[in-house]
Amino acid sequence: MTPVLRIHLIAGFPYPAKREFLQELETRAAIPEPNRTRPTREQDRIALDLPGHVEPAPLIEAWADPEAATAWAGRPARLESTTVVLDAEHLARDLGSKDLLAERGWAARARDTRSVADLLFEQLEAADRIAIGGGDATPPPAWIRVLNPYAEISEPRSTIAEIAKEGGGRSVWPRASWRRLRDGLSLPPGSPPALVYRRRRPFDQVRFQHWLIRGATDVVRAKGIVWLANNPDLVLGYSRAGSVQRLFVAGRWPRAGAEPAWDPNHPDQAELLARWDPRAGLRHQELVLIGSALDPARTEEALDRCLATDAELERAGRSHPLQAIPTGGRPATH
After folding, report:
1. Smallest Cα–Cα separation from 303: which of 181, 180, 212?
2. DSSP state letters, 139-196
3. Domain-embedded: residue 290
4. Measured between alpha carbons, how far is 90 from 298 in angstroms, rounded to an integer?
5. pLDDT higher than 70, residue 318
6. What is the pLDDT of residue 251?
7. Of 121, 204, 260, 275, whose CA is between 20 and 30 Å from 322?
8. Which range marks the domain in which residue 218 is found?
9. Which residues are registered as beta bridge partners of 290?
10. How far is CA 96 from CA 112, 243, 284, in A?
11. Domain count, the chain
12. Cα(226)–Cα(238) distance, integer angstroms
């Protein structure tokens, strides 16, 4: 009988510390990196080296279903753990780096607009283990715990010893603080202040951009979607990774009007129907903001001042009453 293949994802940038970790993992724990796209049937554990540009979270979510991992492996398989390997020599610089992945030669495509800090934050938030190696490993910045309070952080040999044990990584998912807050899930005691900001009214572009420059300085991590009055059809994504901010086009809002023919018995579509407004459609603001020095009440007031006023909307020929958004169990900010 073919044993279940246990897959250990290894993420991180292509520094020497990651290559050394993979070599040590094979030497000390007998967990090899496959030489081909798919492992051989003799292997029962493998270390899958993710390319430097890959965000682990989508793969983790897809392979949460063992059938998906089995389809990839061509045999019974399951995802066992996700480790991010950091190189201490480069960590401080990368955490605040505005370099694009393409500028480092790490992008999968020329139009990849993610920064090094963007991707590093995503990797850390997906990990159940973080190994810090390379040179004189120093304690990680305390606010890494702001991003992911559930990951085990240690030096490579201790991490490898844990991986070598029977059993998988931690079962908590999602591990990213911002995703848990967005979904109304709890964080451990002592977690830093945070704000989940939701409104169904567009921001004035000038005031919101001023807030991004002057008012978001206490925010360490932020993710969300933004609706601007001067571009009402565009869905804008917002991300802050340390001092690196990014506002980008993420799609287009569905046209408002008649209620879409979505299935109310489908969980995701039922939540969208609950959010639907005939005048605004699905347009809304949704920002998750986290920071050790964050004042949630003051930040909420500052963002409310960025919202377009009735007079501004009337001049633009639009009317969107300020209202709470039904969120299907997620806490709304009123």
Report:
1. 212
2. PPPTTHHHH-TT-EEE-HHHHHHHHHSSS-S---S---HHHHHHTT----TTPPPEEE
3. yes
4. 35
5. no
6. 95
7. 260
8. 194-315
9. 194, 221
10. 18, 6, 30
11. 2
12. 7
